[in-house]
């Protein structure tokens, strides 16, 4: 697969995740936070497991190990965002969660000993400026929820790097499926410990859970695991910066929410930042990333340190 095609697949994944905000909001009206995490990922795991059962039986210890790490990160990211929204505004959460765009290249320097090109750095800066214009609506102050959303952004940056390393040495499909099972299992465990697990009782609740499971989770994370084998973690982080743009588009179409002039300028800056970064593609090949990634797998670094 060419890197351009892999990047297009990552964009489709980001489009699906842009829709997740509407479904999460509706889903939380029917079930509690950990319960929603459990339903979302376990249903996705059951669906994918039923389709690719024979292939899952061939999963080796390396794939299981990486999947466990990715599942833990995925659970932690989802839980951090959901609980963060309890004490911070949606606009602050959207901006802070998008700090993944900055954390990915920063961690690449620290963990993988890679220095992103000048255009990638410039693209990330322009993109972050756009995200700020698109999502922030007032003065920013640090609240517990803000810190949780920053944590979610950092954890998802780690998730991107670990996925990039794991996809090159393990079966990407099994990797994508098994991490859903581990994340859902952790959600169910925490739901039993701190909540009363239940299933949605309304049609709207079920639609939200099923869309989160099938489209945003089953399809999204499996495609991410496969596509990241052919692109770079920094490109992945920048493409994911489109999530607030897609979220705003879904809100406009389905919830009749309109962007301000500043919001449209922010969306344009995000797209411009991605274009600037894409101009670096010819100088950064996935093949070159492979040797650096496999020489020092991120998963090993975070086993001793730490969605």
UniProtKB/TrEMBL annotation:
Q: Where are the transmembrane segments?
A: 36-53, 65-85, 91-113, 120-139, 145-166, 173-194, 206-223, 235-255, 261-279
Does the record's keyword annotation contain Ribonucleoprotein? no
| Superkingdom field | Bacteria
Q: Does the keyword Transferase apply?
A: no
Q: Name one GO cellular component term.
A: plasma membrane
**Subcellular localization:** Cell membrane
Which parts form a coiled-coil structure per UniProt? none
**Where is the stretch described as Disordered?**
284-307
List, for all copies, the residue spans of the domain called EamA. 6-135, 144-276
Q: Which UniProt keywords apply?
A: Cell membrane, Membrane, Transmembrane, Transmembrane helix
The UniProt family comment states: Belongs to the EamA transporter family.
What is the official name of this protein in its record?
Answer: DMT family permease
Q: Supply the source organism for this entry.
A: Paenibacillus sabinae T27
């Amino acid at each position: 697969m060419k890197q351009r095609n892999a990047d297009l697949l990552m964009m489709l994944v980001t489009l699906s995740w842009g829709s997740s905000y509407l479904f999460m909001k509706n889903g939380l009206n029917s079930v509690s936070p950990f319960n929603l995490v459990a339903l979302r990922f376990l249903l996705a795991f059951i669906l994918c497991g039923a389709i690719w059962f024979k292939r899952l039986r061939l999963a080796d210890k390396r794939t299981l190990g990486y999947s466990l790490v990715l599942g833990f990160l995925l659970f932690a990211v989802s839980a951090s965002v959901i609980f963060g929204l309890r004490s911070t505004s949606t606009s602050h959460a959207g901006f802070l969660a998008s700090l993944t765009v900055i954390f990915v290249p920063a961690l690449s320097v620290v963990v993988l000993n890679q220095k992103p090109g000048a255009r990638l750095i410039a693209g990330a800066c322009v993109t972050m400026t756009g995200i700020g214009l698109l999502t922030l609506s007032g003065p920013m102050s640090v609240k517990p929820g803000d810190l949780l959303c920053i944590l979610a952004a950092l954890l998802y940056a780690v998730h991107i790097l670990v996925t990039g390393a794991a996809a090159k040495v393990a079966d990407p499909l099994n990797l994508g499926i098994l991490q859903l099972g581990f994340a859902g299992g952790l959600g169910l465990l925490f739901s039993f410990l701190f909540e009363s697990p239940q299933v949605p009782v309304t049609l709207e609740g079920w639609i939200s859970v099923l869309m989160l499971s099938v489209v945003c989770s089953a399809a999204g994370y499996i495609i991410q695991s496969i596509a990241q084998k052919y692109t770079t973690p920094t490109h992945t982080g920048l493409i994911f910066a489109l999530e607030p743009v897609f979220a705003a588009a879904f809100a406009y179409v389905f919830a009749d929410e309109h962007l301000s002039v500043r919001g449209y300028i922010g969306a344009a800056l995000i797209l411009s930042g991605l274009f600037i970064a894409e101009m670096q593609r010819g100088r950064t090949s996935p093949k070159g990333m492979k040797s650096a990634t496999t020489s020092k797998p991120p998963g090993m670094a975070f086993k001793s340190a730490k969605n």
